[in-house]
Write a structure and sequence with these properties.
This protein has 660 residues and is of the alpha/beta class. It folds into three domains: 325 residues, Rossmann fold; 179 residues, Domain 2, N(10)-formyltetrahydrofolate synthetase, CATH 3.30.1510.10; 82 residues, Formyltetrahydrofolate synthetase, domain 3 (Roll). 38% of the residues lie in helices and 16% in strands. It is built from 24 helices and 27 strands. Strands 3, 4, 5, 6, 7, 8, 16, 17, 18, 19, 20 and 21 form a twelve-stranded mixed β-sheet that branches. It has a three-stranded antiparallel β-sheet with strand order 9-14-15, with no helix packed on it. The protein has a two-stranded antiparallel sheet with strand order 1-2. α9 packs across α11, α18 crosses α19 and α19 packs parallel to α20. Pfam families: FTHFS. It catalyses: (6R)-5,10-methylene-5,6,7,8-tetrahydrofolate + NADP(+) = (6R)-5,10-methenyltetrahydrofolate + NADPH; (6S)-5,6,7,8-tetrahydrofolate + formate + ATP = (6R)-10-formyltetrahydrofolate + ADP + phosphate. This is formate--tetrahydrofolate ligase.
């Protein structure tokens, strides 16, 4: 691709070898930094990308020339059109060495589109700014398989995460404000302020009607309510010890892991005057992508469904044990107003010009770690019969793919035709007993020379993930990502182990260095597997099973645990959720992604362990119950030397420097 002459010249100067040409890219033998490749590329106008999908003008909402939102009207227009093939990209249990799952998602998309002439759309999550400025860097893929413009992708994009942040914090403000007003007002005063007279009349707003329905009150004229009904309606009587809703920001900020609220002079006066010391409570911030609103966005199927899910979100419980929701606080309609544009997926492009829908980015531990339902649904209609949608599941397949199947597919009604499991020989060495690797320290020499024994031992991890996919009835293609120091003997061991374990195909891929051309064999394997039509997708558990039965099914089948142990607190929480009707929800286990077990140091395929459930929480609006295994941080911290040290702006061009 032609591009920025200065960036292209710099990349060319750094090349150690000859220039290699493929269909769409000029590839350098020494692969430049991701940002140099991205900035050297010429982006097509996003309207041109839209035309390749036959999107109509009124179905694209432009955000500049290079990104746009896709209206859900496109899905409605194409509702009678058959879906394309649905491919999920997952991985082995990740290591600090990196396996290239996002890179594979984009590389496969480029292979199918640019080199196999298939209609294809990639669907990926929007990254948080926390890791972007922290230690991980961006998440646009890498090398010659990236989403561009890289800077837009990794930073603000179209503002969806900012909308989530504002919505989350509005709900937190409404919650604390309601507690304060209830502490300082009588029931009658509360009711009069909630339903003031206007022109001699009182009325209930639409969101108030939702609370009346929850209480079983059929009257719709505020003046008709009895004193008891007025008290029921106006006083939520929140038990502050049960509050589960935190404020959020989209940055890594360890100082916000513990904060005190209601410390102002007016709040202190009310706390003292009304004996309401509970107002001045200790709470914390989470990172924005950990907000339940992010999970709601990812699992909602329409604007109206999102509105209902926002209303059902539980922020705490009353002193009588009743759940208190965003609807009860009267703020759910306002949340929907803030989120109404965010429901539409964002259209971008790959380096080789394939369409990419970037939408939602929920945590992969306390949430389900997949991009949005609506992005996948829209994409499947846009590519149509014989087209391909390549979507990515977060973390390893024991977390991301399990939740893709049991949570996302339940919400969407879709089922995958194939799963691609990504691994590298180098990462498998760690699972075979190789030494630990820490960020910022030199990589042990064993990972950069041939060691057939470590690779052989480590194959047990990818084999377990192949077996797990079989439990869902989904055929597997393994992508063995080649690295410069891999030997052919090591790669051959991995390919053979995967095929012996039941993978339909196992393919060596090199899309990081060669773009779509390097994943052409992978694309052909995916084509063959999808065309065979052997997917017999099934959920791992039924809705009717109890919460404990669901947890144990996942623990034993997917993780290989001998059983599950519950704390006393977890037992109490499970009983509460089942009594409230939440027992039919799917479960979303929040555990370490670094091991199949609950111990991140246990690599390979651990045995002889039990899963310890410390606590169980419910994201009722998103629609799942999540057991917590061990300590789970929802606010990352910054290291001594974060990525932001390398970032700046070129004052001449306005371009971003140092984004990784």
């Amino acid at each position: 691709m032609p591009g920025n002459p200065r960036a292209a010249k710099k990349a060319k100067k750094e090349a150690d070898g000859p220039v290699i040409h493929n269909k769409s890219l000029e590839l350098l033998a020494k692969v430049p930094a991701d940002i140099e490749i991205a900035q050297a590329a010429t982006c097509l106008p996003i309207t041109q990308i839209g035309k390749t999908l036959q999107l109509k003008d009124d179905e694209l909402e432009m955000y500049g020339k290079l990104k746009a939102k896709v209206s859900l009207k496109a899905r409605e227009r194409l509702k009678d059109k058959p879906n394309g093939y649905y491919v999920c990209v997952a991985g082995i249990n990740p290591t600090p060495l990196g396996e290239g799952k996002s890179t594979t998602t984009i590389g496969l998309c480029q292979a199918l589109g640019a080199h196999l002439n298939k209609k294809v759309v990639a669907c990926v999550r929007q990254p948080s700014q926390g890791p972007t400025f922290g230690i991980k860097g961006g998440a646009a893929g890498g090398g010659y398989s990236q989403v561009i413009p890289m800077e837009d992708f990794n930073l603000h994009l179209t503002g969806d995460i900012h909308a989530i942040t504002a919505s989350n914090n509005l709900l937190a403000a409404a919650l604390d404000t309601r507690i304060l007003h209830e502490a300082s007002q009588t029931d009658e005063a509360l009711f009069d302020r909630l339903c003031p007279e206007k022109d001699g009349k009182r009325f209930f707003s639409p969101v108030m009607v939702r609370r009346l329905e929850k209480l079983g009150i059929t009257k719709r004229n505020p003046s008709d309510l009895t004193p008891e009904e007025r008290s029921q309606f106006a006083r939520l009587d929140i038990d502050v010890s049960t509050i589960t809703w935190n404020r959020v920001t989209d940055l890594n900020d360890r100082a916000l892991r513990g904060v005190k609220v209601n410390q102002g002079p007016e709040e202190s006066r009310i706390s003292s005057q009304y004996n309401a010391g509970f107002l001045q409570r200790t709470t914390q911030f989470d990172i924005s992508v950990a907000s339940e609103i992010m999970a709601v966005l990812a699992l909602a199927t329409s604007l109206s469904d999102m509105r209902d899910r926002l209303g059902r979100m539980v922020v705490g419980y009353s002193k009588q044990g009743a759940p208190v929701t965003a609807d009860d606080l009267g703020v759910s309609g306002a949340l929907a107003v803030l989120m109404k544009d965010a429901i539409n997926p964002n259209l971008m492009q790959s380096l080789e010009g394939q369409p990419v829908l970037v939408h939602a980015g929920p945590f992969a531990n306390i949430a389900h770690g997949n991009s949005s339902v609506v992005a996948d649904q829209v994409a499947l209609k846009l590519v149509g019969k014989d087209g391909y949608v390549v979507t990515e599941a977060g973390f390893g397949a024991d977390i991301g793919f399990e939740k893709f199947c049991n949570i996302k597919c339940r919400a969407s009604g879709l089922s995958p035709d194939c799963v691609v499991i990504v691994c590298t020989a180098r990462a498998l060495k760690m699972h075979g007993g190789g030494p630990p690797v820490k960020a910022g320290t030199p990589i042990p020499e064993v990972y950069e020379r041939e060691d057939l024994d470590l690779v052989t031992k480590g194959c047990c991890n990818v084999v377990k993930h192949i077996q797990n996919a079989a439990a869902f009835g989904v055929p597997v293609v393994v992508a063995v990502n080649r690295r410069w120091h891999d030997t052919q003997a090591e790669l051959d061991i991995v390919v053979k182990a995967c095929k012996d374990a039941g993978a339909a195909e196992a393919v060596i891929a090199n899309h990081w260095a060669e773009g779509g051309y390097g994943a052409k064999g992978l694309g052909e394997a995916v084509e063959r597997v999808c065309a065979e039509g052997k997917s017999d997708f099934k959920f791992l558990y039924e809705d009717s099973m109890t919460i404990k039965e669901k947890i144990e099914k996942v623990a034993k089948t997917v993780y290989g645990a001998d059983g599950v142990d519950y704390s006393e607190q977890a037992d109490i929480q499970i009983r509460r959720y089942e009594s409230l009707g939440y027992g039919t929800l799917p479960i979303c286990v929040a555990k370490t992604h670094l091991s199949l077990s609950s111990d991140p140091t246990k690599k390979g395929v651990p045995t002889g362990f039990r899963l310890p459930v410390r606590e169980v929480r419910a994201s009722v609006g998103a629609g799942f119950v999540y057991p917590l295994i061990g300590t789970m941080s929802t606010m990352p911290g910054l290291s001594t030397r974060p990525c932001f040290y390398d970032m700046d702006v070129d004052p001449e061009t306005g371009g971003v420097i140092g984004l990784s």
